[in-house]
Specification:
Length: 154
Amino acid sequence: EAARLFLESSKVILCGRGMSHILCQWLASDLGGVQIPSMITNPELNESIYATLPAIDTGTLFVAVSFPDYYFMTEQVARYAKRKGAFVLGISDRKSSGVAKISDALLTARTTTRMFMNTASTPMALINMLSSAIKIEGDKDEGIIGEEFGGLFH
């Protein structure tokens, strides 16, 4: 369902700070590989936010990525996007995070392991699975799934 959001939205805006910004960059790179343009905004940088706000409207998929340490401006921009009619997809580590409470849909990945606090491995795996799902869903739309098997699976 989340993959379909990326394929059906007229605009994709990714928002995150710190490690979350790195996840946004990775996702943007993967989206570019499947011909889905996106904008990245860093809520820590005023000029980045002010450049993004006018682009948000009802056709926008606003992806708020927020992992510890959470940043209040990510939540504020997500609230603004929601007020402008955008669909807000949250990506966070728990259902109780601020972004999770604002989001229309939520993907979660734990960031705490026995040995490390705030490890990026699980969120990176989530981004990787999401990117794969977007590619698979896009290929279904194009009717090219199964080409390696002589096109049996259109």
